[in-house]
Amino acid sequence: MKLLTAKMKMADAIHANYLLIPVINRFGISLGFGEKTIENICSEHDIDVDFFLAIINAFGNKNYFPESRLQTFSVIMIVKYLKKTHQYYRETLIPSIENLLELLLEKSSRKNKSLAVVKKFFDEFKKEFFAHLKREESITFPYVEEIYKMYQPVQKSIKKKKLISYSMKIYKAEHDEIDEKLYDLKNILIKYISGDFDNAICSAIIFELFRLEKDMEDHSRIEDNILMPIVAEMEKSLKLIKA
C-alpha cells in the first residue's frame, strides 16, 4: 500500500484501507467528509497534519514507522492519541466482541462446554487488558505529562518534584505482554472449539479479535518505539539539573 499524503482525498484513504475509520475517529473526525483532502480535514479540526499522516501511515503499513519523525512531536500530542485509543478499546471494540460472544452462547447448545471455556478465557483477557489500560492512564500518562512540564525551558529553574518512585524503566517492566493471551483466545476458537455452535458468529468474533490484535500492535509500537525513548531522554536530561 502506497503512503497517504496530505493532498489525497480522505475518502480515498478510507477506500485504500477501511480499518482506518476508527483511527481517524480518535482524532475527532467523523464520516461524511465529501471530496475534502486530508489536509483540508486536518485544518478544519485543528490537527497537526504531519502527525496525522505519520499515525495513519504507520497504521496502514506494517513496515513503515518513522520513529525519528514521530519523536519530533510533543509527547502530549502522542499521549492524547493513546488515550483516545484506550477509549476505543474500552467503549467500542471490546464490548463488540463481548456482545458477539453472548450471541454465540445464546444461539448454541448450553451443553457445549468449549464455549464456556472461550467465555471464561475472554473474561480473563478483558480483566487483564483493562487493568493494563488503567495503569497507563492513572500512572504512566500523568507521569509523562509531569516530566514534559518539567522539561520545558521555563520550568527548568523550578525545584524538581520527587518523581523517583516511577520512571520509564519501571513502565517498561510493567508493560504487560497480553498479546500471547489474545493469541491463545484466537487459537481456541480456530483450533479447539467443538460441538453445536453458530459458525457465522464464531467467524465474526475471530475477525474482530484479529482486528484488535492489529490495532494493539500499532498502539504498542507507538508506546515502545516513540513515547518511551522521548521520555527516557527527558529523564536523562532532568537528572543533570540540580534541584
Question: Would you give an account of this structure?
Answer:
69% of the residues lie in helices and 0% in strands. The protein has two domains: 10-64, no CATH class; 69-238, no CATH class. The N and C termini lie far apart (50 Å). The protein is globular, with a radius of gyration of 21 Å. The chain is an all-alpha fold. The longest helix is centred in the C-terminal third of the chain and has 40 residues, at 199-238. The protein has helices at 10-16, 21-25, 38-44, 49-60, 67-70, 75-106, 113-151, 168-174, 179-192, 199-238.
Q: What characterizes the major β-sheet? A: none
The average pLDDT score comes to 85
Beta-strand residue fraction: under 5%
Question: What is the first-to-last residue Cα distance?
Answer: 50 Å
Shape: globular
Structural class: mainly alpha
Q: How many discrete structural domains?
A: 2
Order of helices and strands: HHHHHHHHHH
Backbone CA Rg: 21 Å
Low-pLDDT stretches:
none
Count of distinct strands: 0
